[in-house]
Amino acid sequence: MRNLALHWQILIGMFAGCCIGLALNAFGSNHSVKVLTGLPDGVVEAEVTDSTSQTVIRYRDSEQNETTFVVDPASQSGKEIRSFKELAEKSPISYQIYQQHGQSFAKRAGEWCRKIGGLFLRMLQMVSIPLIVTSLLSGILGLSDRNGVGKMFRRTLGYYLTTSLLAIVTGLLFVNLIRPGLQTANTKSAMTSAGKTFDQPALTEVIFAQIEAVIPSNPLAALTQPNFLSIISFTVIFGIFSIRIGGTPAQRIRDLADAAFEVMMAITTAIIRLAPFGVFFLMSAVVATQGSSVFRSLGWYVVTVTAALLVHACITLPLILRYFGKRQPIEYARAMSPALLTAFSSASSNGTLPLTLTSVEQRAGISNKTGSFVLPLGATINMDGTALYEAVAVLFIAQLHLGYNLPLSQQIIVAITALIASVGAAGIPHAGLVMMVIILQAVGLPLEMQGIILAVDRVLDMARTSVNVWSDSCGCAVVEALDLQSDDGLETGLSAG
Asked: What is the pLDDT of residues 343-379, one digit of tens each?
C-alpha cells in the first residue's frame, strides 16, 4: 500500500469506504423499536422507525398525549423536519429518545466513521492558517531583490485577479445551470422553499461586509477566530511593506518566511498522506447514512467541474492570450505541453515550476526577466482552476446538503471568499482541500460534507492544476506584451520629444 502513488491509495480508500458504506446501508439502515423503559421523565412509551430516507419518532406522555416528529432530509413540503439538529432544537425529548434508542446500526457506525474522518479535517484546519501566511510571505518577499518590481507586480497581480474572477464566474454559471446537487431532488419545489430558509440581505451590505473583513481591526484576533480574509489581506500588506523597507529587516523576514513555508509544506504533505484513511472513513459515513443515491449527484458534480474548467482553459484564457498577449493559443499551448502534462500527472504547481520556467523561456520565447518574476508569483497566488473548483464544490455541497440553491447574496460571499482563498492556496496536491474549509465556514456549511468531494478530488485536482499552470503561462505572455507596449510607447515619446 505504501509503495503505491498517493492517488491510487486515495482511490482504494474511496472504493473500500464506498463498499463498507453500501454494506452498512443495505443490511443495517432499517431499524424499528418500541421502548417502554429508560425514557426521559414524563414519557411512558416511545416508538422509533429509522431508515435511510426518513425517521419517525412517536412518544406518549403520562397523560396519554401522543406526539409525532418526522425527520426527512429530502422533504420540500415544509412540514417535516429536515435534520436532527433541527429536531434537537424543536423537541429535545424526541432527539434524546432517538439518540438513546432509535438509531439504526448503519447510522451509529456512520457517526463513528464521521468522527474519525473528522480528525483528518481538523488536521487540514490546523495547517490552513500558517500555510496561508507562510506561502504568501514567501512568494511576495521573493520579489524583494528585483528592480522595477512595482509596475510588473501590479500588472501580474491584475492579470491573476482578473483571470481568477473570470474562472469563478464561469464555475458559478455552470453550477447554477446544471445544479448537480439538485439532480435527485425536486428543483422547482427546492427553489420555492429557498426564501423560507435564508433572509437575504441587500447586496451592498454583503459586499461592504466583505470589505470590512479585508481590513482587520485586530490581526492577532483574526488569527484566532479565524477570519481568513483578514489574515490574507494583512499578510499581503505586511509582505509589500517589508519589500518597501528592504535591507536587513526584509531579508530576515524573507529567510524566516521561506524556512517556515518549507516546514508547513512538509507538515501539509504529511497530513495529505493520511488522505486515504480520511477518504475511507468519510465516504463510509456518507454512504452508510445516505445510501447509493449520493453517487448520482457526484457524477453530475464531476461533469459540472470538468465543463467549467474546459471553458475557462479552452475559451477564456486563449482569448486573453490572443488579444492581450499577442500569441497564437495553439502554438503557445504546444510550447507549454511538457509543463502542462507534468502538472496534470503530478497535481502540483510548485513541483512543475522548474519545467514551466524552462518551457516558457526555451520553448515559448518569453524573457527570463518576465518568466522568473511572473511564474513563481503565479505558483503562489494564481489558482484559476482551484478557485473555480472550490466555488463549484461549495455550491454543490450546499445544494446537496440544503436541498436548494444558495441565494445570490450567499453566492457573492462564495465568489469573494474563493477568490481571496485561492490566493493563499499552496501549489501542492490536494491543497484546495485546505482552502475549501475557508469557504464552507464562510457560508455556514458542515465541514464533514467535504468527504463527498474527496472521493473524486484527485482526478479533478489533476485537471485544475493543469489549468493553474496554463493560466500562469498565459500570464507570462500577457505581462511581457504589456511591458513591450509600454517600452515602445516610451521610446516613441522620447523620439518625438
From this structure: 786 667 766 777 788 888 888 888 877 777 787 777 7
Does 92 lie in the same domain as 132? Answer: no
Torsion of CA 369, 370, 374, 376, to 10 degrees: -40
H helices present in 246-367, as ranges: 247-272, 275-290, 293-311, 317-323, 329-335, 337-346, 349-358
Q: How many domains does the chain have?
A: 2
Q: How far apart are the first and last CA of the chain?
A: 71
Helix (H, G, I), strand (E, B) or coil at 61: strand
Contact between 141 and 254 (Cβ < 8 Å): yes
> Which residues sit opposite 69 in a β-bridge?
57
3-state secondary structure of 54: coil
Q: Give Cβ neighbours of residue 273 (< 8 Å, ≥ 6 apart).
A: 6
Res 270: pLDDT: 81
Cβ–Cβ < 8 Å for 410, 198: yes
Radius of gyration of the chain, Cα coordinates, nearest whole angstrom: 25
Contact predicate 357/371, CB 8 Å: yes
Rounded Cα–Cα distance for residues 271 and 284 (Å): 20
Determine how β-strand 66-71 pairs with β-strand 31-35.
unpaired
Q: What is the pLDDT of residue 430?
A: 57
Residue 215 lies in a domain: yes
Distance CA 143, CA 370 (A): 12
Residues ≥6 apart with Cβ < 8 Å to 357: 371, 372, 375
Alpha carbon distance 109, 281 (integer Å): 10
* Assigned domain for 493 exists: no
Q: Which residue intervals of 80-202 are DSSP H helices?
A: 84-90, 92-97, 105-141, 149-178, 187-197
- Based on the domain organization, do 338 and 399 belong to the same domain? yes
Q: How far apart are CA 497 and CA 484, in angstroms?
A: 20
Q: Which of residues 70, 103, 136 is at a domain's end?
A: 103
Residue 379 structural domain: 128-274+285-487
The enclosing H or E element of 73 equals: none
Q: Write the CATH number for 373.
A: 1.10.3860.10
Task: Confirm whether 336 is domain-assigned.
Answer: yes
Residue with cell 448520482: 296
Model confidence pLDDT, tens digit, residues 59-104: 888 878 888 888 876 554 555 676 777 788 888 888 888 888 878 8
Q: Is residue 8 part of a domain?
A: no
Rounded CA gap, 231 and 124, in Å? 17
393 Cβ contact partners less than 8 Å away, ≥ 6 residues apart: 301, 305, 436, 453
C-alpha neighbours within 13 Å on the C-beta side of residue 466: 20
